[in-house]
Amino acid sequence: MNLANLGLSGLTAASNRLQTAGHNINNAATDGFNRQTVLVQTAGATSTGAGYIGRGVQAVTVQRAYDGFLAKQLVAAQTQGAALVSYGNEISQINNLFADRTVGITPALQKFFDGVQAVASAPADSAARQELIGRASSLVAQVNDANAFLDSQRGNINTQITTTVTQINSYVERVRDLNTQITVARATSSKHEPNDLLDQRDQLVSELSQLVSVRVLEQDGNFNLTVGNGQVLLGGNTVFPLAAQPSADDPSRTIVAYTAIGSSGTPITIEMDEAAFKGGSLGGLITYRRESLDAVQNDLGRLATGLGMAVNEIHRKGADLSNANGGNFFTVGASKVLPSATNSATGSLGATIEDINQLTSLDYRVERSAGGYTITSVPNGASKTFLDADLTAAGDKASVDGVEFDFGSVATPAIGDSWLVQPTRSAAGNLALAITDPAKIAAAAPNTGTANGDIGLELAQLQTKKVLGNNAMSLNESFSQIVNKIAVQTQQNGTAAKAQATLIQQNFSAQQAVSGVNLDEEYVNLTRFQEQYSAAARLIEVSSTLFNTLIGIRG
Fold this sequence. Notes:
- By secondary structure, this protein is α+β, with helices and mostly antiparallel strands.
- Among the domains are: 3-65 and 516-554, no CATH class; 160-285, no CATH class; 334-425.
- It has eleven helices and 21 strands.
- The chain has helices at residues 3-26, 68-99, 105-121, 126-188, 195-209, 280-315, 388-393, 427-430, 454-460, 475-515, 519-554, and strands spanning 36-42, 45-48, 51-54, 57-64, 214-219, 222-227, 231-235, 238-239, 243-246, 254-261, 267-271, 330-331, 336-339, 350-353, 363-369, 372-378, 383-387, 397-400, 403-406, 418-422, 432-433.
- It has a five-stranded antiparallel sheet. The protein has a four-stranded antiparallel sheet with strand order 5-6-7-8, with helices on one face. Strands 9-10-11 form a three-stranded antiparallel sheet.
């Protein structure tokens, strides 16, 4: 090995190091980039009579500074953080809607009962009666508007779920493409890793995990991806895309389905359990809808139902200015019954609220079982089974939590047929004023004259009477409970989001300490490698000088 070859090996190693340092500097701000280092080793030595003379240096490979444990920690923290952010974005909207005690339902409810009290004090006063009609109309409008906002948010969540699922499928396809590129690159150069392609794939998985929590299973250098309870998104070179589609139980609700291969060999979509989604923005949206939005809308519906039915029950006992029997003061909507799209049964299941005091904010899933029906509350999962013989003896009816279920109209049900019953979900939107004529307000007890306000006083007592929650809540307390529940959930999410943001920053700092580019360090490396390059070039120059000297001596 002569000096020229020694110099050439040094030039090559220095050049590789300079290029890698430049690559690091250029990508210092690139998301997902891991700092690269040229690994070198001695080129060995040649045995001579004077001993072993070194043959210089050689580059072995370019290695990325990557710690799999730290990377996974960071991704997991970001996944949970994304879920908290998307949940917080949604719940903050209804918190702002309900938290203001100066406008909205709280003051409207107070003014309604103030109007009732005024009529009870002066039953024949036409101005007081007209004021009550106006205040009742305002209360109905506030309840309707609040429900309309919740419906609008529900529709927006459907749109976001659809968009997010599209993004997820796009990311999965890109991960598959990078799997292919990495496989080809490794086959081309079996000794070296395609570091930049690996970084790109890891970054895609990181960004995908902020949309939905995925598990990565590496096999033969390729990433396989699963979601939820193990449903495959990417297996080998095959993508099994998610789908956003209407729920079979509730067509107004967009759910996520995974793709599987059916018995005929063609792809089919199967609905996924909402509880399977825990992380990423998709998990945050679904968790918010399941745990907060559904409950808030049902709670508001229970308030509307309780108000309407309690007022109507008392109002029907009274007499109006013409001494006619009082009718309904409010119009209360019917319970919502949704048959599953997979049902074979004809006819319809009936559901009627019969006792507002026992009424909860739950929905119910009614399923045909062997020899009867099983009613399961949603989401807590408590169930009761009613046998056909018992139902026949009870007139084909059964009661759960103040809701009467009527099975008489269901014809030839098959085992597995089901119905989703939402007793109060749409009640706030369906609440309406049944009377518009002030003279029709039945404030008096029958046959006592227009100056009597006994029924009006009884109506006024509803403001504080415990008519909901098994004698636990008044109408005012029912709404306060809604407001407080939202406030607590908002605060809990905000606190968790701040803590998670801190954890993300800590994990990012730990990951960057290993994998990040330090520009000051790279600047120092540039100087070192430049000097190595110059020294190696000097070796070649010295070799050339010595060669010319030898040629001159021989000449």
